[in-house]
Amino acid sequence: MLLETVNKEARKSENILNALLEYQKSKDTNHISEEELAKLAEELGVTESRAYSIITFYSLFSTHPRGKYIIQVCNDVPCYVNESTNILEEFENYLEIRVGGTTHDGVFSLERTSCLGCCNMSPAIRIGEKVYGNLSTDDIPRIISEYRRKYDEEI
Ligand code: FES
Predict the structure, then answer these.
(1) Residues framing ligand 1 (Cβ under 6 A)
(2) Of 14, 18, 20, 60, nearest to 40 (Cα)?
(3) CATH for the 69-154 domain, from 3.40.50.1100, 3.40.50.300, 3.40.30.10, 3.20.20.140
(4) Which atom of ligand 1 is nearest to the CA of 116?
(5) How far, in Å, from the CA of 111 to the mean position of ligand 1?
(6) Structure letter (DSSP) for residue 8
(7) pTM metric for this prediction
């Protein structure tokens, strides 16, 4: 049973979003494959198409393997006018990957995302559940170091 890693409350079909999110978080590859999705839908008692529509609607989900930490750079208008493009480019240069890519060691993936709901802090990014705002390109090395340290502590 795939949902054994997910807490009991989230396993209920009315909590399908939480169940899928928790399941994805439990994997180092941060994704749900199509085979897994079919099993998860069955375990949750929902149709496969319902489960599929959820993971394709929310940018938090992926059907292909990603890094342990997903860096999502907001690209909506308030962030864009506050130079989120520079932030994205700095991550690309610093991590030596392009947007949509994953570092060789599988630690980071870099993505664009729509509004994170904190436009007053633009430009903003999200890594996991943590949001960073009012960023400048000078902040990027510190943020990467923070997650490298965290990763080293966890392995
Ligand atoms: S537009 Fe970037 S957080 Fe809203």
Answers:
(1) 74, 76, 78-79, 115-116, 118-119, 122, 124
(2) 20
(3) 3.40.30.10
(4) 3
(5) 14
(6) G
(7) 0.82
What is the distance between the alpha carbons of residues 32 and 44, in angstroms, rounded to a whole number?
Answer: 15
List the chain domain ranges.
2-57, 69-154
pLDDT at 154: 86
Euclidean distance between CA atoms 12 and 20, whole angstroms: 11
Atom of ligand 1 nearest to the CA of 84: 2
Q: What is the pLDDT of residues 123-138, one digit of tens each?
A: 999 998 899 999 999 9
78 CA from centroid of ligand 1 (Å):
6
Phi, psi (5° rounding) for residue 123?
-80, 145
pLDDT at residue 12 in the model: 59
Best substitution site from 116, 120, 130, 131 to test ligand 1's pocket, by max atoms within 8 Å of Cβ?
A: 116
